[in-house]
Protein 1
Amino acid sequence: MRDERVEAKREAESLGVPAAEARALAERLGLEPYPVRYWIVDHDEMNELIAYGGFQRRYPHWRWGMNYERQSKLDRHGLGKAFEIVNNDDPSHAFLQESNSPADQKAVITHVEAHADFFANNRWFGLYADRGKGGPNAAARLERNADRIAAIADRPEVDRDEVERLIDAVSALEDTIDQHSPADAARSVDEPGVDEDVNGPDDDPLAAIEERIAELDLSEEVRRDVFDDEWLEARGEGVEPEEPRPDVLAFLRDYGKRYDPESGKAVDREPWETTVIDALREEAYYFAGQKSTKVMNEGWATYWESVMMGGEGFADPDEFLTYADHMSRVLGSPGLNPYKLGFELWTHVELRAARRDVIDKLLRIEGVTPENFHSRIDLDEVAAALEPHPAIAGAGPATLDELAELAADRDPRVDAEAVDRALSARDGESPGTDSDAGPDSGPDIERYPWKLLTREGLAERHYVLSRPEHRNSLRNVSRETLTEQARYMFDVDRYATVDEALADVDRATGWDRMLEVRESHNDVTFIDAFLTDEFVREGNYFTYEYSRATEQHRVASVDADDVRKKLLLRFTNFGKPTVVVLDGNFRNRGELLLGHRYNGVALDEESARETLKRVFELWGRPANLATIRVEYSDEAIRRAMRRGTEPEGKEVGVRFQYDGGEVTEHDLDPEIKARIAADEIDYDTKPDDWLA
């Protein structure tokens, strides 16, 4: 075993050259990744990193040990091996499993470089930290939080169990941040003395009077008779948001208290408690970027990994089968696979952009219209013309002379300097190539033929419309699509022949469009924009649901709109129920009222009840949650089973309340029910189980 470890370590430490070459190739393809620092770790270290969310140090808490035990068991039984972990940081840190095969290590490195590009350029990751002020600096910030919380837990006057209890409460609500606003909108944990001098917004002279009123336990009618309405409403100023407030965790930080079991009252928090809440909320924003772009990010990394490893032969010939098996397992994982869905969507984005560019040129040929497009244009001729130049497609030692001729004509697809150095080495005018050389010491064109080409050349070499699986995509374009595109064309740049038109086709159009989309979208907007009818049809996507009538799952729809709606539900708000603050002074008793934005999918009520208890710990006073459930009568279910149809249910408003004793259930005021019904987001999702 020791000899195996030594050999694995030796192979892992030889990855410096592939890492440098992968970075050079990624940049030539047009990517702009953060710098990446690679670390080689063993199984135990990798499991520890996974437990800590990809970082080496986190604040003290019992769940890290639980995560470690779970991951260790998965790893031990071959059910959850991690090939790598990479975090969003500048520089990014990538941890590679030392037991990976050489082919796997190369695949992981190319995958990581694409992740680092996504981290550096996607705006949703920018919400965690202002890139203009030195980048995320995530490792340092999370380490600082770890030190600060550990120091708090070590204070003699602080009960360590209370610290962990507070962490439990905040962690249960970490997805209730406003993921569309910058993290720095929160009170910064960097403010001098924040853990010593913070005073809550409730610290005012009238707070004691309000507590005395609460102690009287007066009815609503008496409260309104005795106390002036204007005064009571003023007491709720700032805690009765005019619009539902999505950042529940920030609201609890700003207006919450702590329940004191000895006095049975809400008391002001200790300053250290606010420090802990702020630190954990900041970290929630760090992980929010990853949660909200899982499909995009993994699909992006998988796409560029395939270009580098397969298309550019980054895997040596004797490693390619291992890599192909690796990729097939990644893309073939069951269930909703973000790697596969993301990879296919990115390819669809590329294909649409490239096809639109070609159609734009062909529709500008004199005499060609949407009506006669398929009869006037020889699409076999077009497909042949779009094939890459033979010297570009086969760039390498065998095509040096042809590439040199292109370089002599200043062809933008060829790296003239690299071709010249390769010719000199071949003809004995230099010491030759060094297989261990770095990316700047001379082109090792046998192992890395891409060095002979520019980005334009690589774009032609990998042009989506020349790939076998997409060569007929122009043939499938409908007249409606052609008419729609022609409507927005300006009557300029006309061509006399097909050859003239195709000469102006930009082979990098697909990649350029991908880079644009990568900057601005998250999973929800990505799926909404690019999951088209064509994509659903060609990918054989469908929705399924649980039938109450047959008590089985069944295919519900193959319609693109239905597939899109189900996927949007899966990724909106990280796939969690959307909960907002409706009132911080509910019933004028200082109670908190949260609202579940009901969109057809009911809450898991058991989880909701337990989470409401955590809310109480951060509010210090009774907490309420308004939601809607669908109730089915026994008769409706029997009738549906006889007819083989789905039963008709009734939507009923429910309010759960927790005041430190038991969670109680109450009827929901119709006005509140109307406020939480997300009618503008009608996803029509009736089944309880979907996309499991």
Protein 2
Amino acid sequence: HVNFEDSNRPRTPKASAYFYSMFDLPVPSKLPNLPASEVPSTAKVVWQKFSSQTDFDRDTFFYGTFPKDFSWGVSSSAYQIEGGWDADGKGPSIWDNFTHIPGNIKNNDTGDIACDSYNKMEEDIYLLRALGVKNYCFSLSWSRIFPSGRNNSINSHGVDYYNRLIDGLVANNIMPIVTLYHWDLPQALQDIGGWENSTLIDLFDSFADFCFQTFGDRVKFWITLNEPQVIAWVGYGLGTFPPNINDPGSAPYRVAHILLKAHARVYHTYDDKYRASQGGVITLCPNIEWVEPKTPSDPRDIEAADRHLQFLVGWFTHPIFKNGDYPEVMKWQVGNRSELQNLPSSRLPVFTAEEREYIRGTADVFCFNTYTSKIHRAVAWGLRRLLNWIKEEYENPPIYIIENGVGIKTTSDVDDNTRIFYYKTYIDEALKAYSLDNVNLRGYNAWSLMDDFEWLNGYDPRFGLHQVDFDNPNRPRTPKRSAVYYAEIIRNNGIPMPKEDEFLYGEFPKNFWWTDKSKCCVTPQRLTGLSIWDQFSHTPLKISNGDNGDVACDSYHKIEEDVEMLKSLKVSSYRFSISWSRVLPDGTTRYVNEMGLNYYERLIDALLAANIIPQVTLYHWDLPQALQNVGGWENDTIVQRFKEYAELLFQRLGDKVKFWITVNEPYNVAYAAPYVVAHNLIKAHAEAWHLYNDTYRAKQGGLISITINSDWAEPRNPHNQEDISAARRYLEVQGHVVTALPAFEGFMLFSVFYCRLPEFTESEKQRIKGTYDYFGLNHYTTVLTYNLNYPAVTDRSWLNSGSFWLKVTPFGFRKLLRWIKEEYDNPPIYVTENGVSERGASDFNDTWRIHYYRSYINEALKAIVLDAVDLRGYTAWTLMDNFEWAVGFDEKFGFYHVNFTDPDLPRRPKASARYYTQIINCNGFPDAAAGLHPCLELESEGKRYSRNCAFLV
């Protein structure tokens, strides 16, 4: 306030000054006079920067927060939520009239009532308060304020409505962001030609002037036009939106020309008459979809992508943020085609020098709406690249994302995980752009506050954070899970790393076993019998690319080389499986293949000579075909056959082998015919365990147990009891009910789902009970479950791998280990497999695999140190790339690359091999803050060298 009666003109701040200061809006300044953009423009550096980005770098989730003054909000528009289409003197808009024509809108929906926000203002403000937003972007209905579109028809009821809305927002410390025009032109103005009539420049300015004068003491953030490309192209080019003019060749350019002039006029009105006293900012808001070149390394594709953005975005932003004129590529291309059409002038109108200067710089900030990328789906990483493009193209202006969200076609989506995953990944990409790329991002608004009228699609796609029941005349609002999630992001001002995910420095117990594992990559037939996998892999179309394991890694002839690899890794043990059919060609003890047994004896001797403990698996899926011919695991005689096979190995190898696994992943063995097969697998395991315990343990002193595989199961909605139950059920199906519970507790849990399980007799239960020395666990990933028997979806923020089923989810490893501890009274646990795959050409700098092992092994350390889990050992899968069952050699899990195109099958270490060696050498993760740990001084080719702690930190 200025006291004009005092000659000193003293100043006193009003309450609105304090309110405005909270938002730290950028101080408006004249934009620099930037040169016209060529194609490709200097912003091509964005594609160059990200073209070499690996999927791992692109998709890795980033934790962090935005600056304290970051503006979080939600958005809506008048026609989509207000209703009251003819209430209290409101005039009709082009959308009112358009929706009243049957067939124009899906299901003949209209916005006549919509969300009824005209009558539910207080409830909507309550929703905004509950979200904790700092701003709310909404639009003014031109025809609600000026029913005829002109200032000679001011509707006091409409003015009062917006005054009460703005006052309510300010009273709750929510900054109003007001859009003057969001597509709903007064029908009276369309009747004189709409945006094709240059008279609208004056009429729009008159409307804006009234709004500045009436609301500007409280509104400090103005948007002139929402998505002007849609107004020009969809309304006047395609003609699918009102006013339904189908003239794609010329009308959009004429309309855009008038829209730009109208925007500039309104900007100057605010700048000249109101800025000094009101101190706000004003801009326009285009919509932008990121465009990715088909081949980012091809300059022609980069040029095509940049040209697309210049036509889509630069059409309106280039004149304002650059030089007052259209992009050169638009002028050339439209002009050239106009000439080819023998037109007297270009279809793209020309600005005079005076108009160019008048338009240039008419924006204080850069606002835009974005939903997807031009890759035919929601692609979160496109947002980071788009923000970088704006930074480079327009010299890093203050940027506000005004609309971002996803529509789901459903009648109800309160439990909207898909929307949560969308916001999680898109906001994370915005965070990367701000934190990693120094993009001047000031705010983010979700679209939308609530389900609303979505134009031609009516009420079918739902974008809202709150569900609206459109069948109920009261239009009740219900917060969705995404509303709770978004409120949490606002409260945290971003996505800080959860405490439980913070990296833990420390060491594993001194006697911890570090292990590597492989399947025995051996198959020379000689006297060896066929296994079911030999038979299967030779059946056409069964294995990817027609691969088979006939030679595989040829470990049969490369014992010395493989043991040297293990020595270089510094592992304390090595897990491998024995081929039943190599030792017993027909699966029975009628004939023993001594050459096969000799191979394993030589391998074990070589391991022991290198101080590496052999961990031996009796059965890893390769049943002798001769036994399969008589029913395989469905024939209960196999229990005795397995016991005889086990006894032979205990007799011949037991003096040297002190760690036995009976069956690897029985769930996967039993999957095809689970109930009978699982029944026999459990009994076979129990018989082998008792045989060892009763006859060989006292002399040989080893351990024997079974190894199960289990993903961690996370409820899709952690607040939904049905999803929680589904997660529990999934864990049970994976192995804990079918295989582990009988061994650990001696009973079966039954439910309708398990009604087909054969029942154990009382004597069988007693025979099975307690047949374990440790809990063997293979673990790779986590799934999300809901009220079905199988997992449904995965969190899209989880990193992918070379296997469709394997998402990188380290947190699940610790949770599973803790669950086993609590479920089975903290048994000794040995992790017998854990690893990650890749596809395509091998990258020896396999940073994603390093990330996987670093994260998962650290979760194992947390389980020991923080949760007191009795974890005794860890086994990485796998020593080298090998035959991965039905996918053949396509998926590579190895620390060592094997060149399968070279007859010698040479092995070559990847970066992950060295990293795993570091972890073993350090027995964990030394804290880099304490300086270089002696364990990081490794020997390489006879020379000493010191490694920095980059990988370990």
